[in-house]
Amino acid sequence: MRFARKASHALPGLLGVVAFLGAWQLIGVYRLAGFTWPPLTTVIAYLADPAHHTLLARAAAASFSSVGIGYGLGLLIGLAIAMLVRIIRPAREGIDQLVAVIHATPAIALAPVFMVILPRDAIPAAISALAVFYLVYVATTSGLESAHRAHQDLFSVLGASPFSRFARLELPAALPSIVSGLKLAVPVAFMGAIVGEWFGASRGLGLLMISGMQNFQIPMLWSAVLLATLTSLVAYGLMGLAERGVQQRYGQ
């Protein structure tokens, strides 16, 4: 019974994926979007060809490294600043505005600055970290405000110290929001790294996409897109499982 319920919940999503893949194949076979949209089978054949594995593996390793570094940096910086403004509350308004300004600035506009102050291969991770930082900061600051009022009053009556209140009440209450922010940060981490590779990185899936566009190597272009998308979806799904576990444990 439980398995049947889970299967019924997963069925709409599975049907959506099958419909998308089928539409991709039909559009490619019948050239409905021109020669720049290859059939899905052509892209899979390119990925399966051993002659391309070294190139794709080297590019994927570079991109995924940038994503991992950017995701980790964005997470640490976002958490640190969110906790700082929780401690120094008068600084909250100013930090919020500064974060909003940074987030509103297009990454393409910041790329020239990164090109001056960072090695080129570090730019993808920097842009990825910038995108992740914003989501983690917003999720954490919002989550730290979510502790129930009655629980806050109880801690006040018991004379809990600020650290005890933070560690035992506010941080656990914020965990569901933080994990939700981390889940949403997965795709933007990938997008940030891919965009960052367009500004002079020596290798990566983003670089393959540019090369594919410039040299009209359409299967290579779509293979890089498919690799990045599938990996992002898998990571997003894993974070969704983590989110469900945290919601069950700490959700109100």
Automatic annotation (TrEMBL):
One of its GO terms (biological process) is transmembrane transport. Its main location: membrane. CDD domains: TM_PBP2. One of its GO terms (cellular component) is plasma membrane. Residues 56-239 form the ABC transmembrane type-1 domain. It comes from the Bacteria. It is found in: Cell membrane. Keywords: Cell membrane, Membrane, Transmembrane, Transmembrane helix, Transport. It is a multi-pass membrane protein. PANTHER family: ABC TRANSPORTER PERMEASE PROTEIN HI_0355-RELATED, ALKANE SULFONATE ABC TRANSPORTER-RELATED, MEMBRANE SUBUNIT. Belongs to the binding-protein-dependent transport system permease family. This is Nitrate ABC transporter permease.
